[in-house]
Write a structure and sequence with these properties.
6-stranded mixed beta sheet; binds adenosine-5'-triphosphate; binds magnesium ion
Length: 257
């Protein structure tokens, strides 16, 4: 890893998933033994067709679902019932639909909710809230009701609610969906500016290429590929085998030496 972003040579990986398998109560087996490791400071895209198990995997990362088999560790701490509070502080999960995340009367209350639960009060709490909103460019909306904001603005506030927890890893489920091109670009700039480990579920392959040096392909409940985003997206056979398609007219640019 180059540049000023944090590196993790001497700290445990942000995320380690080992042999994770899961079947829903109706018997649908969604994950068949997933192994992956994400080092501190990496930005990784999780690609895969509809029904591959991406959201199911993401819901294991902060214990919304708990492993049928296998283990999940966040910075060395196993996800278990007795660690859930700390796990939820470490894993900032941004849901696909911001309305699943925002439920308070004002933006300020929504962003303050998590840190207040951790016991922060007064100036310290205000500073957390203002910092998080500044990082996503939404400080001006601090006193507005979230339901008066546009979808793209609500998505940014949803990102701020998890940044305010100072998470070990930010996990986003389809962050670019339903954004207009300018909002999509602005969110990319925000994500690039954050000094935090990121796992991003996306069907937007150019977004993965722009933001993530590394990608994983989840297909049929297993990791089918793990490598440089550029090489994966340049492999037409691999993409076709997992129902992934580049947008019409998009060519993966040649690597600059
Ligand atoms: N609550 C549920 N009960 C039973 N089966 C479920 C449930 N939720 C998801 N599944 C099944 O689990 C599998 C994985 O679904 P999941 O939502 O994880 O896929 P995904 O990769 O996120 O897909 P998408 O790209 O469409 O969001 C699918 O076969 C799906 O039908
Ligand atoms: Mg999904």
């Amino acid at each position: 890893m180059t540049g000023p972003r944090m590196t993790g040579a001497d700290s445990p990986p942000s995320l380690t998933v080992s042999r994770l398998a899961y079947a829903y109560p109706d018997g649908t087996q969604a994950l068949f033994g997933v192994d992956l490791t994400i080092r501190r400071g990496e930005r990784v895209a999780l690609l895969g067709p509809n029904g591959a198990g991406k959201t199911t995997l993401v819901m294991h990362l902060n214990g919304i679902l708990t492993a049928g088999h296998g283990t999940v560790e966040v910075a060395g701490l196993p996800v278990r019932k007795d660690t859930l509070l700390e796990i939820r502080r470490r894993v900032g999960l941004v849901f696909q639909d911001p309305d699943d995340q925002l439920f308070m009367p004002t933006v300020r209350d929504d962003v303050a909710f998590g840190p207040a639960n951790l016991g922060l009060r007064g100036d310290e709490l205000d500073r957390r809230v203002c910092d998080a909103l500044t990082r996503v460019g939404m400080l001006d909306a601090i006193d507005r009701p979230p339901h008066h904001l546009s979808f793209g603005q609500r998505r940014r506030v949803a990102v701020a609610t998890v940044l305010a927890m100072e998470p070990e890893i930010l996990v986003l489920d389809e962050p670019s969906s339903n954004l207009d091109p300018a909002s999509r670009r602005e969110l990319a700039d925000i994500l690039k500016s954050l000094d935090v480990t990121v796992l991003m579920v996306t069907h937007d392959l150019p977004y993965a290429l722009e933001l993530c040096e590394r990608s994983l392909i989840l297909s049929g409940g297993v990791i089918a590929a793990d490598g440089a985003t550029h090489s994966l997206l340049a492999d037409a056979g691999l993409l076709a085998a997992h129902r992934l398609e580049l947008p019409y007219g998009f060519a993966v640019p040649a690597l600059q030496e």
